[in-house]
Amino acid sequence: MNKNPLIVAQNIGYKINENKLFHNISFDIKHGEALHIKGRNGSGKSTLIRIILGITEPVKGTLENKSTKEICYLGHKNALKTYLTLDDNINLMQLTNCDMLKSYLDKLELNKYRDVTVSNLSFGQQKKLALLRVFLNNSDLIILDEPFVGLDDGAHTVLTSFLNNELDKNKSLVFTSHIPCNINSKILEIPK
Amino acid sequence: MIKKFIHQFASPKTYLYQVSRFYKYIFYFSLIIYIISIIWGLFFTPEDFVQGNSYRIIYLHVPASFLSQTLYLAMAISSITYLIWRVKLAAYLIIAIAPIGAMTTFIALISGSIWGIPTWGTWWQWDARITSTLILFIMYLGLISLHNSFSNHEKADKLLSWLVIVGAVNIPIIKKSVDWWSTLHQSASITLTDKPSIDPVMLYPLIGSIVGFFGLVICLVLLSSKYQILHREKNKSWVKDYV
Amino acid sequence: MFKLEFLKLRKKTRSWLGPILVFWLIMLAYPLTVEFLRDKLEIGFFSVLWIAILISMMLATEGIFSEDYNDGSLEQTLIKNPSFSIIIVTKIFTHWLLIGLPISILSFVFSLGTTEDLSLSLSILPLAIISSYIFLNLFVLGNALSLNKGSVLGALVTMPLALPVLIVLGKGLIAIQLDINYQSFIFLLLGSLSIIIVAIPIVVSYVIKAHLE
């Protein structure tokens, strides 16, 4: 099993307008490992995730990402076009790995809405649709920001078992969640 | 190497202490030069044959127009410095210069209009230089309002730098295009705006007024950049010591 | 990629039909406001035409990034595609195809209707095509700069960049009417377009990255 770290963060710090958000955070993520980022509201969890994604640059410290494939990410925003139908949105996701699409649409009870405009779906249904990005990913690193918000019990179970399954496949996972979930993970607490 | 050099000498702290040291000298030196040239220009030079006394406004108008473009150039250089080497001081300078650039451009426009009334018989003419100066003024206003609309300073600095650079490319284009444009409207005023072969008697005080005005505006820029630094780095310990 | 951008814009009828209708309305309103000039409609016609193109291009860029920014698609694109500027080129081209091109054709039609001069109107067509593309690029920059701050600020910021183009257009028109070196104006506009078409997407990609940070 390959145990080289996929992501190494050293002494990362970030501030907005000279106000420190966090500083001196170090961690690494190996293949097959999950990292649960915890912290109070406003402690900078989402910012840290954006730093891992490479969207935001840390003010101090370094972050190395050795992942060769594109990162699979889902944040607070669903990246859905509400004026398009469910099918069109799936097209827009440019999923490369579509064999399982049908079975996941069934599992998430979305199959009968395929021609419905997304604005007519409920919040939870939209979230499930957005999660298709994760279920059909083609990556070795999955990053999720509060993925369980708005999911019903069924979808919650589907997601947890899927993520555990991915971890077994030697993929890595970074996530934040206030909702308890059954994923075996390292914990990174952002101090305030 | 260059990066290290710049970072060492362009730390806001060093800058601030140097500014405090030299500020007085620059201020009094340029004030004296400007006052001397103005008095010389206003009282000790002969009346213009064609324009009478009204031409004397050049001692305000010419320096202001000259500076309105020079300041923009300074902003552009600061922007490039900021984007390439991430020098914070350069970012502070950009936003420190912008309002002063707008001010000098405004002075140039107003003094030009006042000058226009007796000489051209109109306070406004859609002529090449006036139009390009007006566009420059709008650009300054746009820059300031863009910077003010973001609460995240770093984001604002980056966006501002990009806009300044794109705008700088535009300045020669503006000049060129309006020049072509006005040559078609064969306007008589063109000869007036082109610098006449000015008599040395008027030239020396003019140069003096440009130098003096330049120095005074630099003082303003120093003051405003000082304010920017203190405002932006107010949480740093050295700022508390300084104040 | 192009197909997807096209689909997104096409399904959002308001975004592409709106600017075209505004253009249409301005051009229809023009003769109404100058009725006493009936025989000399051409005098102000082209000024109105250029300004109408400018305004409708400004409206066309209204939601070009803000929608993707607000729903999180921009982040997804940024993560997936290292060549962010190519996406921006595609976006601009799509908008031009659905808005700029119809407006250019409408300019030709209105010009023919007003001046009843076919060769003049045919010379207007390339000017309209190129200038609409230039304006679109410029306003995209403004829109990117003032992303999530409303498009008025962006328009204010980029208007000075668009003014020289208007001046060149005005001159080009005189060149057409007097039949002197019309081609040099086309080349001039094409030259600036070729610079803008490369430079603006690169700058915009940096600007948007700064926004997402």
Automatic annotation (TrEMBL), chain A:
Entry's Gene3D superfamilies? P-loop containing nucleotide triphosphate hydrolases (3.40.50.300)
**What Pfam families does this protein map onto?**
ABC_tran
Q: Which InterPro entries match?
A: AAA+_ATPase, ABC_transporter-like_ATP-bd, ABC_transporter-like_CS, ABC_Transporter_VariousFunc, ABC_transptr_haem_export_CcmA, P-loop_NTPase
Where in this chain does the entry annotate a coiled-coil region? none
- List the Gene Ontology MF annotations in alphabetical order: ATP binding; ATP hydrolysis activity; transmembrane transporter activity
Name the GO terms of the biological process aspect. Answer: cytochrome complex assembly
Instruction: Please state what the protein is called.
Output: Heme ABC exporter ATP-binding protein CcmA
- GN (gene name): ccmA
Q: Where is the ABC transporter domain?
A: 7-192
Q: Which UniProt keywords apply?
A: ATP-binding, Cytochrome c-type biogenesis, Nucleotide-binding, Transport
From TrEMBL, chain B:
Q: Which Pfam families match?
A: Cytochrom_C_asm
Compartment list: Cell inner membrane; Membrane
Question: What is one term from the GO cellular component aspect held by the record?
Answer: plasma membrane
Q: Which domain of life is it from?
A: Bacteria
Q: Which family does it belong to?
A: Belongs to the CcmC/CycZ/HelC family.
Asked if the Swiss-Prot or TrEMBL record annotates the protein with the keyword Cell membrane, the reply is yes
Residues forming the Cytochrome c assembly protein domain are 21-185
Please report the record's description of how this protein sits within the membrane. Multi-pass membrane protein
Q: What is this protein called?
A: Heme exporter protein C
GO BP annotation list: cytochrome complex assembly
Q: Which residues cross the membrane?
A: 25-44, 64-85, 92-117, 129-147, 159-175, 202-223
Q: What is the lineage of its organism?
A: Bacteria, Pseudomonadati, Pseudomonadota, Gammaproteobacteria, SAR86 cluster
Assigned keywords, A-Z? Cell inner membrane, Cell membrane, Cytochrome c-type biogenesis, Membrane, Transmembrane, Transmembrane helix, Transport
Q: Which InterPro entries match?
A: Cyt_c_assembly (IPR002541), Cyt_c_biogenesis_CcmC (IPR003557), Cyt_c_biogenesis_CcsA/CcmC (IPR045062)
Gene Ontology molecular functions: heme binding; heme transmembrane transporter activity
- Gene, per the UniProt record: ccmC
Q: What does this protein do?
A: Required for the export of heme to the periplasm for the biogenesis of c-type cytochromes.
